[in-house]
Amino acid sequence: MKALLSTAPGGPDTLQLAELHDPTPSAGELLVRVHAAAINYPDVLIIEDKYQMRPPRPFAPGGEIAGEVLSVGEGVEGWAPGDRLIAVPGFGGLVEKIVIPAKSAFRLPASRSFTEGAALLLTYATSIHALWDRGQLKDGETLLVLGAAGGVGLAAVELGKARGARVIAAVSSEEKATAAREAGADITLVYPRGPFDKDASKALAEQFKAAVSPAGADVIYDPVGGDYCEPALRAIAWEGRYLVVGFPAGIPRLPLNLTLLKSCDVRGVFWGAFAARDPRANQAHVEELFALWDAGKIAPRVSATYPLERAGDAIAAMAARQVIGKLVVEL
Question: What is the structure's pLDDT at 221?
Fold first, then answer.
């Protein structure tokens, strides 16, 4: 089978197309024919050895897949060859065939394509856990979403509207602002590119404050980090909840006096650990996501597709932080 492998730490140019033997499922596992694999920002980090997980090399990046079952391992119940599924293996998805734990798979309805399915779980499951569990977002509250045109950002915009929130989408270009409005954002703002000096940081804080209204944002969803964090936190409401989702702009240094002045919370969002620790709650979230999808309240946006041979180009595009929605590799 074909696989795109990371054989040494580095950028997308270090990935190599290779031929591997087909894997065999062990007890409790499924052998899956991968039809589509979504590219996410962790794929940029994992091949550079900058992610919290460092698989032994050689390994294939690609943490999110959609495919069909080829065979089942001993003891697996409820799955059969031909069944369609989606899963988040974390890595290893840029291959023609992969073995995954059966307990990690979710059924993909026949009405949804593999490309659509591959674009759902990681971003929407992260965002629903963030907003429902960690942010405790309520109907009528104000939600500020940074990086609102990326995969998790658009998911947060849609889910925020589904929850009944007033959603302010912060993005880095007018094109991205259009995408956020199409996803349902009530207000969009275009912020400048960092890094920011003291004056620029203050100006950005005022821009956030003007967008969210004097009362501030009840929930701030931050998958960006870096110099955007402090200005956003300055726009939070009394007893607001600041959700830490990711750091493509760098790990911020947060002045904790701001949390005292606003009596607010800073809450981490680690969906992978949540799903592993509480699989029943995660299953309930995924079922709710499918219901929202069927109701037309969410819809994964795939802005481009690539063949396996060009998956490195997809990772490079993600590294440039110019992607709107999701990128998917079709096999």
Answer: 98
Which residues have a Cβ under 8 Å from the Cβ of 189 and sit 6 or more positions away? 168, 169, 170, 171, 177, 207, 208, 211
Whole-prediction pTM:
0.94
Place of tokens 């790990």: 251
Rounded to an integer, what distance in angstroms lies between the CA atom of residue 27 and that of residue 328? 30
The tens digit of pLDDT for each residue in 120-143 reads 999 999 999 999 999 999 999 999
Dihedral (CA of 225, 230, 232, 236) sign = positive
Distance CA 103, CA 221 (A): 29
Contact yes or no for 314/305 (Cβ under 8 A): no
Identify the helix (H) or strand (E) that includes residue 274.
Answer: helix 271-277
* Residue 11 CB contacts under 8 Å (≥ 6 apart), including other chains: 47, 48, 316, 319
Q: Is the model's pLDDT at 52 over the cut of 90?
A: no
Q: Is 143 helix (H, G, I), strand (E, B) or coil?
A: strand
What span, in angstroms and rounded, lies between the C-alpha atoms of 106 and 284?
11
